[in-house]
Amino acid sequence: MTNELDSVPGIPTFRPTTGRGVNLRVTPVDEVAIEARAKALSTRSIKKSSKRAALNLTISCIDLTTLEGMDTAGRVRALCRKALTPDPADMSVPSTAAVCVYPTMVSAAAANVAGSGVKVASVAGAFPSGLSSLDVRMADIRAAVSAGAHEIDIVLERGDFFSGHYGHVFDGIAAAKEACGSAHLKVILETGELGTYDQVRRASMLAMAAGADFIKTSTGKVSKNSTLPVALCMAEAIRDYREQTGEVIGLKVAGGIRTAKQAWHYLVMVNETLGSDWLNNRRFRIGASSLLNDCLLQLQKLETGRYSGPDYVSVD
């Protein structure tokens, strides 16, 4: 066991010995307050003069994703072309932050974004369940990194987490961080299965203490994915973690974010909770496949005053 778990009334305090986060205190979540705050944030609008900047920022924070059983090298190649040049007719539109693929598709993605600023992210470690032996999960991570992945997305071991085996969960994340080498580690909490905001806050702090460079809401493979209140809960945990340790952790939201308007709610939340230092793709990501198309259509509307037809954007 690499960490000791002390309990305070209903909320554990993590004492990892890895050097990341000592004596972390996990504060309870006021459910009514966090939902009211999220609702208020969702009513904010972006002025017309700022919409282009907001759309470009959103695009630059997207992890353009394909995680389908029918993925091929050709499909990944097309995805990479779109990530590099989202709108060939407007070169002022930025590239996306990354392309996110299965480990077997990493080499194809890496070859197609080589020399650019677009990163290759890969789900690994028995995604989306995380249910395999530690050796198998670590081999999966190392293989993805060896093939060219810059970032690895793993899933929290929810079974052990719900059983209160926090030390085992901590050790698994710490091992994944070591297996990543120089690659960044994102830990997916699968918040739709955690049940309560207190569980989300607890899982967030545990993942960060164990070595996560980013904490992420969802796999996109369950019925309930990212919601603004849950993302706010995670952002507050990131803020608390920084106050307690001085370390900066990123936030990734994923699952069900399909329109620019939805994405803007998250940008507003991040800005007001964590500050403008998080409004970049080094600290904030959106995992999406269809969001980019809506952003491109919105940009076209700003130019022409009308929405373009469906042929304006590619079907991913």
Give a nutshell description of this structure:
By secondary structure, the protein is α/β, with parallel strands linked by helices.
Structure characterization notes:
The strands form 2 sheets. This protein has an 8-stranded parallel beta barrel, surrounded by 8 helices. It has a 3-stranded antiparallel β-sheet with strand order 1-2-3. The termini are far apart. Helix content is 43%, strand content 16%. It has one domain (33-312): Alpha-Beta Barrel (TIM Barrel), CATH 3.20.20.70. The protein contains 11 helices and 11 strands. The chain is globular and about 55 Å long. It has 316 residues and is α/β, with parallel strands linked by helices. α4 (106-113) links the parallel β5 and β6.
Number of DSSP-assigned strands: 11
Looking across the biggest beta sheet, what order are the strands in?
A: 4-5-6-7-8-9-10-11
| Backbone shape | globular
Number of alpha- plus pi-helical segments: 11
- What is the structural class? alpha/beta
SSE layout:
Blueprint: E1 3-8, E2 11-16, E3 24-25, H1 31-41, H2 48-60, E4 62-65, H3 73-84, E5 98-101, H4 106-113, E6 119-123, H5 134-146, E7 151-155, H6 158-162, H7 166-180, E8 184-188, H8 197-210, E9 214-216, H9 228-245, E10 250-254, H10 260-273, E11 284-288, H11 291-304
Parallel strand pairs: 4-5, 4-11, 5-6, 6-7, 7-8, 8-9, 9-10, 10-11
Antiparallel strand pairs: 1-2, 2-3
Helix pairs in contact: 1-9, 2-11, 3-4, 5-7, 7-8, 8-9, 9-10
